[in-house]
């Protein structure tokens, strides 16, 4: 069929592809340039002075960007670990069993992926104030579970739907304890799914803004909060550097998992929330 | 252990966390929006917060703006994403690059995209500088307002930038599963390219397209940081309005914030129902 395409069709295709490529990278370019610029004023198309000042500032011990990076990694790692602990069993129940009320359970787990964070975070905040969890790192980790657990559960339900329980039964009939069966039979089979789901759950937590802002009350300053503050206070150079640091985990995770990322995998659904 | 007990034990941790945090948060928000909170002595629920919101002109402007943002972004993203998926279906130079960029773009948080759009389209941004270079404008103020503007153009540009790859990746996978046989049959029976797209391919990808657009609509309706960064001060998008009332020095406006949050939740619940119905229909095919 493609042999029948005329010159017009082919050149149209190439031009659209070029426009698409430029458009996809375009917003990241000024961000990158700003991080190396000093006093880049209108109407200069490119900065007159190139420096590493913004990077030095961002990477220095005193500016707090590195502390914020560490804190953000800590929060996302904790939220991911907890959502794996909770999401793997739930995924097993949804992926391997049919039971009464399954549709309702699925609905309850799907709901947080559609309902925006701000709609629930205000109510949670007033409870967290009584519990002493407002303005704390632990409170922020807890509230990050709202988007990460459903995500992890849905990914694991997909993994378990293709999981054959016969191997587990054989291990049990040969005398393995349930724990041993899980460790030596189930876990190796589902581990790739856990890793991919966990990496994306990490990204989901990594990109949270309003949940952190509300529950952390401005005291728990993760990277996106810092980035927002620098961008709105006109420090474009530092915002540029932080922005580059902030997208790095996503790029790394993309390189690690590119082959898992077809639109067919349930992992992609979670990207709607990043 | 019976299967029933096993299922309950497996689901218990996830359901309790979601039940407590998500549904608990919603319930508390709902109670506070009715000024009802026995623990702090508010024992008589009333509709004061809702009356206050619905008699405030800013709320209607804000709602209209938020709906415009979500609707326009979703429609534009869907159209462009289907076009991009049609393009990426064929092998050609650049396909690998676009595929990679689509996935890269999926991992970039919305906030970073929003700052990028700000640096590109603001009145002293890259495009304004290009316009000055070509002597189309002399001062930044002469460049059309594309961010902080009443039509939310900057916000929509950002959402389109992020959501075209999201919908595109889903639709492309959809198209690859369907294959091109149906269209070939239509073409061999004399259908034009447009007819085979409109009457054969489009109905086949419709379920995937509609469930993806529900996710996009709900997200763009409820997101905070993008309108907070790129939006005009007045009227502000609903999530921004809710956050502002919640953090107002006047604590009396907190129930109003809760009421706005509940309205956002209601709308997304409607979206959720639509999503379920659409994905059921997709599976039943």
UniProtKB/TrEMBL annotation, chain A:
Highest taxon of the source? Bacteria
Query: Which keywords fit this entry according to its UniProt record?
Result: Cell inner membrane, Cell membrane, Membrane, Transmembrane, Transmembrane helix, Transport
Membrane-spanning ranges? 12-37, 73-95, 107-133, 139-161, 182-203, 209-231, 238-261
Q: Does the keyword Transmembrane apply?
A: yes
Which SUPFAM superfamilies does the annotation name? Answer: MetI-like
Q: Where is the major localization of this protein?
A: membrane
Where does this polypeptide localize?
Cell inner membrane; Cell membrane
List residues of the ABC transmembrane type-1 domain: 69-257
Q: Name one GO cellular component term.
A: plasma membrane
Membrane topology per the record?
A: Multi-pass membrane protein
Which Pfam family is an annotated match for this chain, by its short name?
BPD_transp_1
Q: Which CDD domains match?
A: TM_PBP2
Q: In Gene Ontology terms, what is a biological process of this protein? A: transmembrane transport
Keyword set includes Protein biosynthesis: no
Hey, which family's this protein in? Belongs to the binding-protein-dependent transport system permease family.
Q: Which protein, by its recorded name, is this?
A: Putative 2-aminoethylphosphonate transport system permease protein PhnV
From TrEMBL, chain B:
Q: Which residues cross the membrane?
A: 7-31, 59-88, 100-121, 159-179, 200-224, 257-278
> What membrane topology does the UniProt entry give?
Multi-pass membrane protein
- Where is it mainly found? membrane
**Domain of life, per the record?**
Bacteria
**Is Hydrolase among the key words of this record?**
no
List the subcellular locations.
Cell inner membrane; Cell membrane
Q: Which Pfam families match?
A: BPD_transp_1
Q: Which SUPFAM superfamilies match?
A: MetI-like
Q: Which GO terms describe its biological process?
A: transmembrane transport
The segment(s) forming the ABC transmembrane type-1 domain are 63-275
Instruction: Give UniProt keywords alphabetically.
Output: Cell inner membrane, Cell membrane, Membrane, Transmembrane, Transmembrane helix, Transport
List cellular component terms (GO): plasma membrane
Q: Which family does it belong to?
A: Belongs to the binding-protein-dependent transport system permease family.
> Per its record, how is this protein called by name?
Trehalose transport system permease protein SugA
Species whose genome carries this gene:
Flavimaricola marinus
The gene for this chain is sugA_2
């Amino acid at each position: 069929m493609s042999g029948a395409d005329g010159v017009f069709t082919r050149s149209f295709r190439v031009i659209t592809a070029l426009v698409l490529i430029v458009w996809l990278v375009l917003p990241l370019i000024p961000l990158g340039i700003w991080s190396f610029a000093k006093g880049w004023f209108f109407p200069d198309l490119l900065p007159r002075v190139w420096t590493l000042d913004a990077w030095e500032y961002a990477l220095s011990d005193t500016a707090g960007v590195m502390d914020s990076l560490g804190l953000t990694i800590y929060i996302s790692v904790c939220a991911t670990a907890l959502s794996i602990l909770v999401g793997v069993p739930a995924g097993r129940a949804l992926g391997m069993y049919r039971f009464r009320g399954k549709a309702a359970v699925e609905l309850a787990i799907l709901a947080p992926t559609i309902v925006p964070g701000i709609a629930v975070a205000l109510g949670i905040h007033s409870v967290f104030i009584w519990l002493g969890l407002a303005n704390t790192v632990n409170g922020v980790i807890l509230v990050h579970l709202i988007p990460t657990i459903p995500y992890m559960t849905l990914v694991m339900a997909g993994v378990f739907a293709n999981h054959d329980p016969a191997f587990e039964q054989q291990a049990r009939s040969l005398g393995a304890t349930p724990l041993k069966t899980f460790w030596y039979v189930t876990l190796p089979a589902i581990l790739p799914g856990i890793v991919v789901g966990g990496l994306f759950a990490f990204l989901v937590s990594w990109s949270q803004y309003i949940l952190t802002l509300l529950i952390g009350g401005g005291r728990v300053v993760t990277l996106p909060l810092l980035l927002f503050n620098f961008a709105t206070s006109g420090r474009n150079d530092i915002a540029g550097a932080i922005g580059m640091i902030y997208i790095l985990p996503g790029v790394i995770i993309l390189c690690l998992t590119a082959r898992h990322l077809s639109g067919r995998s349930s992992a992609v659904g979670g990207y709607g929330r990043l | 252990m019976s299967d029933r007990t096993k299922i309950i034990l497996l689901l218990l941790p996830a359901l309790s966390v979601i039940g407590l945090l998500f549904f608990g948060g919603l319930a508390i928000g709902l109670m506070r929006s009715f000024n009802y909170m026995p623990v702090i002595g508010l024992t008589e629920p009333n509709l004061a917060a809702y009356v206050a919101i619905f008699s405030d002109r800013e709320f209607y402007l804000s709602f209209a703006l938020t709906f415009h943002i979500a609707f326009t972004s979703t429609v534009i993203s869907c159209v462009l994403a289907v076009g991009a998926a049609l393009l990426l279906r064929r092998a050609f130079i650049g396909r690998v690059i676009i595929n990679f960029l689509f996935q890269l773009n999926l991992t970039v948080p919305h906030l970073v995209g929003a700052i990028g759009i700000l640096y590109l389209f603001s009145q002293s941004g890259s495009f304004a500088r290009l316009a000055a270079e070509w002597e189309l404008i002399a001062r930044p103020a002469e460049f059309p307002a594309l961010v902080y503007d009443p039509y939310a153009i900057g916000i929509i540009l950002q959402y389109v930038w992020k959501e075209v790859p999201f919908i595109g990746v889903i639709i492309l996978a959809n198209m690859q599963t369907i294959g091109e046989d149906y269209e070939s049959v239509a073409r061999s029976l004399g259908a034009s390219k447009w007819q085979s797209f409109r009457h054969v391919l489009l109905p086949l990808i419709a379920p995937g397209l509609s469930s993806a657009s529900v996710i996009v609509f709900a997200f763009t309706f409820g997101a905070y940081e993008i309108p907070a960064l790129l939006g005009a001060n007045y009227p502000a998008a609903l999530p921004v309005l809710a956050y502002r009332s919640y953090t107002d020095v006047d604590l009396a406006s907190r129930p109003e914030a809760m009421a706005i949050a509940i309205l956002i939740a209601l709308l997304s619940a409607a979206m959720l129902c639509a999503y379920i119905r659409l994905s059921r229909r997709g599976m039943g095919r």
